[in-house]
User: Fold this.
Amino acid sequence: MQSGIFHSTYEKDMALRHTPAQKIRLALVIVVIFALPFWADNYYLTLANQILITIIGAIGLNILTGFTGQISLGQGGFMAVGAYTAGLIATRLGMPLWLSIPIASLVTAAVGGIFGIPSLRLKGLYLAIATLAAQEIIVWLVTHWDAVTGGVDALNVRNYLWFQGARMRFTEFQFYWIALALCVGTVFATVNLFRTRVGRAFVAIRDQDIAAEVMGIDLFRYKVLAFATSSFFVGMSGALIAHWRQIVTWERFTVDISILYLAMIIIGGLGSVSGAIYGAIFMTLLPAFLNSVGRSLGGVFPLMDNLIPFIQKAVFGLVIILFLVFEPEGIAKMWRNVKDYFRLWPFSY
Assistant:
């Protein structure tokens, strides 16, 4: 019976996958994500693109809330910064997609760092209120800065892949590969971030900020850096939405979106990159599943179409409550329990 995982070299100890089972699962995931766009229809490709974009945003929020312990309700506002920045520089300056997305991410990181300054003095509920204020300030600026954002009017985004003049509209199949590349890069960068001094400083601040400061960690520097790093990926998610939808409106980035993303990392698992992935997939597929069930029951219950939005909200709240009561560590912990059971079977006790 396997009694543990033991390493004889530093290279093996630092590997991202240690056991053959982990490597096989990773290989299967790679096969699925590369085969998916070739057999999936347009509906499922749309869902896949939405999931990939959502994963990037959820990982960004989990860096701040799950790994660093800084509660944020400003996710929607920071996504709006990324989306409007990418849309404006692509439309008005003619910048190509491969330039507009990183620039939008950097601008969002700067804005996130500015709003992260109060985190040195604020904790818990007070910090949550401060980030909620950031959400409202950003949305107010977007809707009232008519000369730049267009106010409440929608911003039509022009996509230039390589240079101005070569405008194109991405199909779901083409955009899938762009979103997949950025999503994989985000996952890889985040996993390795928490194997560095900076990532360990984030975790130390989450566990006990006073003890972290005693050990020599500059709280102000690393808290602001956590906000900036988180906002970088959140801005990337917003920029992808702008180029994917090719229309940006402030209604896509309200406080409801901030709460939705917070629910994703709670359900998936705080302080876990895989948890952010599981939560994003679950909370994206759940409304699609409920809509599908509602359409199938529409012939039997004529009022079902009108009830679906209310059912979605009720299920949304119920799922959060059930996870908080029965499995606070989320889907990531449930999956870990399943793996441990089979790894130690028949002596799983």
Remarks:
- The chain is about 75% helix and 0% strand.
